[in-house]
Amino acid sequence: MTRAIVREFEFKLNDDLTEKAITIAIKDDNGLIMPSPLGNFIKSEYINKGLSLQSQKNAAETIVRMINYIYKRVENGLEKELRHYGFSAITLEHAAQYITDRSYCTRLDKNHPDKLTSNYILSEINYINNFFYWLEKQKLLKQNYKVKTEKINYIGLENNRVSKIIKLNVFDLNDVEILYPKRRSSLSVKLKDFGEKRETLISDFIYTALRIEPGIAFGIALEMLGGLRRGEVVNLMQSSIKKRNNMFIVEIRDNQKELFTNSSSTSDVQVKNERDQICLCTDLIEYLYDHHIKYLSRIHPKKNNGLFISSKTNLPLSGSNFSEKFNKVKQEFLKDLLEKQDFENYKSLISKPWSTHIGRGIFTNILLNLGVTASQLALLRGDKNITSALSYIDEFSMINAVQNALNEFHLSYSNWRLI
Structure pTM? Predict the structure, then answer.
């Protein structure tokens, strides 16, 4: 089977002097080793910048491990788009899944043979971050995503002023779901839940959205009560919403071709895993859905297949549009907490940054509090790395657990006054 490998080689500086360097190569099924274009990443980012042989090797080994991890997923019948398009179809989500699996190894018992340290994974993240900045610069991938640098000024060892350009974390910039290792000291930590008073805060947040940005209130509810990602929300069609056996079902599909044909960037409208998603609080979700359909009829009399439409352009909302509106709701929500002198929740909610992705964390914690098992949780969240066998084993017990959860979890909204 074809594999990426790390190769050390020598090259001439002049007639009398040679130097060793590292590159990335490909080894095919017959054992033939060929240079890989990915070797240019090591050359431009490490060799040409005078970094040590060990730095080159560490970077190359990290990228090779990640590429082979992705190769293995393709060989196991996953990642159909990669099988069809090849390397150009690699996405940030593929890299995030690799890092997530590696991060799990930091949580193993210290005597476990697969145990990894957090610092080791953090160094891998830095190499992968550099790799995706290079890929974006070279325009080698189909996926478009944001990259951003920042200038840092500090005082050097000789009390002189020094500036350094750093590459910001590409996964955080693009709001990609990822599990970081414990003691994530060098990376910003995001808030993942509203905490113990989440039920009241969820209700208040959705109500704030209905007042401030009614066009996304239903989408926010789907995130917090159904665990949908931002890209999954904006990909919904009006036909995506179903009710079956007293449960509210969202049919999550990749509808980019129908909704975003004129978009120059697709990084914020990706659907990670197509599935039928069950939502909590069926009565509230149904209430918000009815309200949303009435809202659509007011802003856009001519029927549009998209479920979330801009009132200004009459075009489907992009992920970035959704986030902008979400942040507007967030600021108003925090302002309301201050006005109510709810300082405890206010301080908690400004202690760490959070974005639209917090809805998925809220949904997860609700399920955990309702006693859903780990395997059922993976199914309910739509996690892609659950095995097929496990899904068959747990499907029936999962439905029973969901039915119980639907009966036990409620949000108060009877005092909402909507126009």
Answer: 0.59
